[in-house]
Amino acid sequence: MAMAFKMATTGMWVTDECKNSFMEMKWKKVHRYIVFKIDEGSKLVTVDKVGAAGEGYDDLAASLPEDDCRYAVFDFDFVTVDNCHKSKIFFIAWAPTASRIRAKMLYATSKDGLRRALDGIHYEVQATDPTEMGFDVIKDRVK
Predict the structure, then answer these.
(1) FRET pair for 75, CA 20 to 30 Å: which of 36, 38, 49, 137?
(2) pTM above 0.85, yes or no
(3) Per-residue pLDDT at 107
(4) Distance (Å, rounded) from C-alpha 36 to C-alpha 120?
């Protein structure tokens, strides 16, 4: 049976698949991003989509629904001004304007529990439309 980590504040459970996929992204660099969703019926936070290492930020943005909430983590690789290769992990809370109020509330109250389960996140971005999480926003955060 798959194990899960319970988020006490909301009664949501984060599946081991979520944590394992995150660790593979963080340590093995096999994923560029992971999109998570909440299954309201089972109260599980599950992996919705995984982006291969060769995919980019535009692929992540395109995988987020226009009318439903999601969480995502993105492994952002960049080169510093002194030519050092770095990587920072972004947590994105996606709650588009067109999503249901109930979904927005559920995702808002479950966010911190998921963040605690995923150790190693550097930055957080909250977005209600694509411009709030544009690639320029991500680049500006790591400066």
Answers:
(1) 38
(2) yes
(3) 95
(4) 16
Question: Closest by alpha carbon to 71, among 43, 104, 100?
Answer: 104
Whether the Cβ atoms of residue 45 and residue 13 lie closer than 8 Å to each other? yes
Question: Residue 117 is encoded by which pair of tokens?
Answer: 């389960």
Query: What pairs with residue 93 in β-bridges?
Result: 71, 126
- The pLDDT of residue 80 is 87
Tokens linked to 67:
């009318």
Quick one: pLDDT at residue 87?
A: 94
Which of 65-69's residues contact partners 24+ apart within 8 Å by CB, and which partners?
Answer: 65/96, 66/96, 66/98, 67/96, 67/98, 67/99, 68/37, 68/96, 68/99, 68/100, 68/103, 69/37, 69/38, 69/93, 69/94, 69/95, 69/96, 69/99, 69/103, 69/104, 69/106, 69/107
Q: What is the pLDDT of residues 50-106, one digit of tens each?
A: 999 999 999 999 999 999 999 999 999 998 889 999 999 999 999 999 999 999 999
Joined together, the tokens standing for residue 26 give: 């963080």
Mean pLDDT of 18-43: 95
Residue ranges in the chain assigned as alpha helix (H)? 16-23, 57-63, 101-117, 135-141
* Contact in structure between 127 and 26 (CB atoms under 8 Å): no
